[in-house]
Each structure stands twice: as structure tokens, then as C-alpha cells.
Amino acid sequence: FIGNTGYIIPTTEKWLLVTLNSQAVHFFYDQISSQIRGGVFRFIFQYLAQISIPHPPPALRAQITALAPPG
Q1: Helix ranges restricted to H, the chain
Q2: pTM as predicted
Q3: What pLDDT, on the 0 to 100 scale, is given for residue 59?
Q4: Which residues contact 30 (CB under 8 A, 6 or more apart)?
């Protein structure tokens, strides 16, 4: 049972994974949401919806994708 803190993004775009796992997004999320015990975040829709996802051109997508771990 996932409840309201598990999400699936049906894409193979690694640049999006890199972006969502970036320090910039982590910092932003820290500013707009609350933490539970131990500094743990719950990724709740009302906060996730506030994260602005860029639409980079293909060349920049390739550069961002290169930052992703292999796999």
C-alpha cells in the first residue's frame, strides 16, 4: 500500500530523474514542505506539484542525462 507518498512517472527520460534528484530540487522541496521525525521528507502531491520541471532542449537533455548513474 503506497498511499499518497508513492508516485510513478512513466518515462525513460534519465534527464528527468537527474533533475528530480538534484540538490536544487531537494533544496526547493525543503523550503516548501515539512519534515517528519529525523529530517525525513514525505513527498505529498500538494508540495510536489509546486516543483517546476524544465523543458530543456535536446542538447542540454543529453548533458543532464550524462550526469545519471549507469543502469
Answers
A1: 14-20, 23-32, 45-48, 58-65
A2: 0.81
A3: 97
A4: 41
